[in-house]
Amino acid sequence: MTRRITHSRLRRTGLCAAGLGTALCLGAGPVVANNGNGHTKYKGSESLNLISVGIDLDRCGDFPNFEAVFEGQGIDTAGGLFSVVSSGCQNIETGEVFDLVAVDTYANGDSVTIEASSFFLEFDPQTCASATVDPVHYTIAGGTGSFAGVMGHGKFEFASNDSACNGEIAPAFVWFHGKYK
Questions:
Q1: CA distance linking residue 117 with residue 106, whole number of Å
Q2: 3-class SS at 153?
Q3: The pTM of the whole model exceeds 0.90
């Protein structure tokens, strides 16, 4: 019995290794689910590093509003690995974030532009973390390459550390899901 189980485990391990090897050698395409009405579902996550904070009167208005610019990287089931540049405005008195735009550029050069609805961040002084109060709606406003002409929407959540609270610099995190056509 032990010999049979061991042999079976070795066979499964070998098959998994062969499948992984094939995917690595041939390249694995994105795994997406079409829900039958022409929309393709996808999900993923990204980490963002704060690049700059400043006043942009034309875009964000007067103080206490400011513009924040982030850069980072992520992965999703629509296109695989991507780099992201994101910017938006925040009212530091109310916590409202508005005019948030992100451009995700995949390894092959294709990209999507994401525009988010306004949302609020809630700060927790016990953990020094800010996070979205509720999931945030976004739309896919455009794309290039294989995403040219794509339309879609979804929801994301956001969490970040407040370095002024604890002295620690850490990336912000976003996790999302949506569908496109």
A1: 23
A2: strand
A3: no
